[in-house]
Backbone:
């Protein structure tokens, strides 16, 4: 669905047209599920993906995310001569020598200035509360056995969106880096070099790691989304959690709890750029993300499956 | 599923949270409470085993060493160090070590998105800094055998071995030695030896050394202040595995695009790894029994490029280390530098030729900038009084009450006055002020750190004179109006007595 169509569709959204249309096949779901559960899941998942990626707002978010690397690339290209060692975001000092590092700079900046967390919050906070606000949730929940599946499919679609957002940023950064800067062998933090291909692979691994971080944050957003009927409340809640966590992470007096904060490991992928590769940061991060996803996923599940939905 | 009650459903997230909390708590408790069962040892047996363990070459290994300093120093805003991978930061600092033999070593300090590496491959030593993208190659002087100054060349630089070796020399009538409950350090079963100073004038409450049960090497050294159960300083392995590391760790080719510097280390200068050998130089050999033993030993590679030790440790080692290589001296504030240069010019012998005088001043200015230490020739020109022998810090007292003292220095006195009054000449003109300056290399570092140090210090005076005292949990530092600096893990009364004895 293009943005133009979306724009035209938007006024109808008040009547629920956009959100409801993909749901028309839903009442058939139990019968389909009995016949072929896998294909029913896939159908449901595909319809959810269409919904998430069809929302004009989400497309606009992706557009902004994709534009940020272009903006930063041009800014850094114009100011690169004044960049000296040590200042600015990590890896900026290596940007002049190798455009591959634009992806790392941009991903770091977008994680710390909340652009990526914002997009994860919008999509996840809207997932259930948005349906409730539009009045479409009741229809979805008429089949109690479907609630767990509804949540799973919603979360899967959000994870796919997170992955798409992070990969889009990484890909746009790599393209801009290729256009604007020298590209060649990648110098690791340890001072050793790897081939351009290996360097790009590591950058993509960083993007996937960032997507995992956003998926974990999205679980918090999903839980918040089940607790309210106002998407804005859920979105704001996620952002408050993120900011509070990042602030706590900066306070040395709270060092005892740093490792348990949801945002603590967001940038702990730097071990991928050492020689020998240090996986410990990535491993700790993935465990932390998984634990948060399970905790808040189960909260969302408990709330949604036990809620007496009236709207 | 449909029949689950609301309460049952909410039990799931509660259960998940509870399980997570229990797992985290259990892991913490297990690591703290795990006591390996080992055959019992007397302190004497343990000490012998340590001696044996340290006499045996350690062999190739890969390890991570973590240092935690909680000395109670106020946050000192030290000038950013050129080439340092990180600014002064709180919290634990760790380095990873790949060690094959004394001539093949790699030490890496890893910070978030940054790394400083020191790689030695035979005579070639590379220092790599990722923040500045700078690779510096040091060609070490050829020497037939290296490691004569270290314990049989079997000791890894910057490991707890060095710290423990220094601490053990303090054992004697001054110390109560006992064996404590066994622990795991870096997943290795270890005995614990506790050293408690008998003197109440020592700030050290106890020093606890964890000793590997199989190889008898120290795995961790912890220093507790008197009357406190909080570790003030600790250095120990957090990971340790034996076996040859990959050869790729030792050889290095600067990446394209990096700034490459080349330095040939002259034979007469203490080689970088001479400093690196634990206990061979630095605070470690100066203050047996003091926390500095650990600081000195860890300050090596880092000393050479200035980042592994935290700001506080850097302050102490910088003040006290007798000789260091250039490059890691922090920049002096310009106005302080100019004042000192003017003082230096005034203090030069009267009979010098104009050109010679200019050359000396230039050399001195470069020295102050941290570019290079004064050559022996320059020092000789300044007369016998100014040689490094008189300028080097020395140790007063013994054992736990050792105090490291620098000789009275007009530079320091001037900098103190400047820091306090804004002018080096304010106040009385002391006789030391006009005497020949002491030009010990650490003076630059001392002077740079002085303003911050003095801000945190309190003025004190007594029959011994006047000065400023910086008190911390483990170290007291006294700066006198004569420009003398004394530091030790002792009560202030010991410092005062030492000043009085020194003057008398």
Residues:
């Amino acid at each position: 669905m293009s943005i133009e169509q979306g724009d035209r569709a938007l006024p109808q959204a008040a009547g629920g047209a956009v959100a409801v249309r993909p749901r028309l096949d839903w009442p058939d779901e139990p019968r389909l599920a009995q016949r072929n559960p896998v294909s029913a899941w896939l159908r449901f998942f595909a319809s959810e993906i269409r919904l998430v990626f069809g929302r004009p707002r989400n497309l606009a978010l992706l557009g902004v995310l994709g534009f940020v690397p272009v903006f930063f690339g041009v800014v850094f290209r114009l100011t690169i001569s004044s960049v000296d060692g040590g200042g600015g975001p990590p890896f900026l000092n290596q940007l002049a020598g190798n455009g591959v590092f634009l992806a790392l700079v941009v991903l770091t900046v977008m994680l710390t200035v909340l652009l990526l967390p914002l997009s994860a919050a919008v999509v996840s906070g809207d997932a259930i509360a948005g349906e409730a606000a539009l009045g479409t949730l009741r229809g979805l929940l008429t089949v109690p056995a479907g609630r767990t599946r509804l949540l799973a499919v919603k979360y899967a679609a959000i994870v796919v969106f997170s992955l798409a957002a992070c990969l889009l940023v990484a890909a746009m950064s790599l393209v801009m880096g290729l256009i604007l800067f020298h590209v060649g062998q990648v110098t690791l933090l340890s001072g050793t070099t790897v081939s351009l291909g290996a360097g790009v692979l590591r950058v993509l691994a960083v993007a996937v790691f960032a997507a995992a971080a956003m998926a974990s944050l999205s679980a918090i957003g999903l839980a918040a989304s089940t607790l309210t009927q106002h998407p804005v409340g859920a979105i704001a809640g996620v952002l408050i959690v993120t900011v509070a966590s990042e602030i706590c992470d900066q306070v040395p007096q709270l060092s005892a709890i740093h490792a348990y904060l949801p945002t603590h490991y967001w940038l702990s992928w730097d071990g991928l750029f050492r020689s020998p590769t240090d996986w410990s940061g990535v491993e700790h991060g993935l465990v932390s993300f998984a634990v948060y996803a399970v905790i808040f996923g189960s909260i969302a599940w408990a709330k949604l499956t036990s809620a007496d939905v009236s709207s | 599923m449909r029949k689950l009650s609301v309460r049952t459903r909410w039990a799931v997230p509660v259960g998940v949270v509870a399980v997570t909390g229990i797992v985290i708590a259990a892991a913490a408790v297990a690591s703290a409470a795990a006591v390996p069962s080992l055959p019992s040892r007397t302190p004497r047996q343990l000490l012998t085993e340590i001696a044996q363990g340290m006499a045996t070459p350690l062999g190739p290994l890969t390890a991570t060493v973590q240092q935690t300093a909680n000395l109670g120093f106020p946050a000192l805003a030290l000038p950013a160090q050129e080439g340092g991978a990180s600014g002064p930061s709180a919290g634990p600092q760790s380095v990873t070590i790949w060690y094959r033999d004394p001539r093949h070593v790699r030490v890496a300090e890893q910070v978030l998105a940054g790394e400083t590496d020191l790689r030695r491959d035979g005579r070639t030593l590379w220092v790599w800094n990722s923040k500045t993208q700078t690779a510096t190659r040091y060609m070490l002087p050829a020497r037939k055998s290296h490691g004569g100054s270290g314990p049989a060349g079997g000791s890894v630089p910057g490991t707890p071995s060095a710290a423990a070796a220094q601490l053990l020399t303090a054992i004697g009538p001054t110390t109560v030695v006992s064996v404590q409950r066994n622990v795991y350090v870096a997943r290795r079963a270890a005995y614990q030896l506790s050293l408690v100073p008998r003197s109440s004038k020592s700030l050290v409450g106890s020093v606890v050394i964890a000793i590997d049960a199989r190889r008898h090497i120290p795995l961790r050294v912890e220093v507790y202040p008197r009357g406190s159960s909080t570790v003030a300083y600790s250095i120990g392995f957090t990971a340790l595995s034996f076996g040859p590391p990959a050869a790729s760790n030792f050889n290095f080719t600067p990446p394209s695009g990096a700034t490459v510097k080349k330095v040939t280390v002259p034979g007469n200068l203490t080689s970088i790894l001479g400093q690196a050998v634990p206990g061979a130089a630095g605070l470690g050999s100066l203050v047996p029994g003091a926390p500095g033993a650990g600081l000195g030993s860890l300050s090596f590679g880092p000393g050479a490029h200035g980042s592994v030790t935290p700001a506080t440790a850097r302050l102490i080692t910088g003040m006290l280390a007798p000789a260091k290589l250039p490059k890691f001296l922090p920049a002096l504030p310009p106005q302080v530098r100019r004042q000192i240069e003017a003082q230096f010019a005034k203090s030069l012998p009267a009979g010098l030729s104009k050109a010679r005088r200019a050359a000396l001043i230039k050399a001195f200015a470069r020295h102050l900038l941290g570019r290079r230490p004064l050559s022996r020739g320059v020092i000789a020109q300044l007369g016998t009084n100014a040689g490094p022998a008189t300028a080097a810090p020395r140790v007063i007292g013994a054992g736990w009450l050792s105090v490291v003292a620098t000789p009275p220095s007009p530079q320091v006195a001037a900098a103190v006055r400047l820091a306090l009054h804004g002018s080096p000449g304010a106040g009385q003109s002391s006789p030391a002020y006009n005497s020949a300056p002491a030009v010990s290399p650490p003076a630059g570092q001392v002077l740079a750190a002085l303003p911050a140090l003095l801000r945190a210090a309190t003025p004190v005076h007594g029959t011994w004179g006047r000065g400023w005292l910086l008190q911390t949990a483990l170290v007291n530092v006294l700066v006198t109006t004569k420009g003398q600096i004394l530091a030790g893990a002792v009560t202030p009364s010991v410092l005062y007595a030492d000043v009085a004895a020194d003057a008398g």
Summary: The interface with chain A takes residues 1-2, 4, 6, 9-10, 12-13, 16-17, 20, 24, 80, 90-91, 108, 110, 112-115, 117, 126, 128, 130-135, 246, 248-249, 252, 254-258 of chain B (CB under 8 Å). The longest helix of chain B spans residues 6-33. The domain at 43-320 of chain B is CATH 2.50.20.10 (outer membrane lipoprotein receptor (LolB), chain A). Chain B has a mean pLDDT of 69.
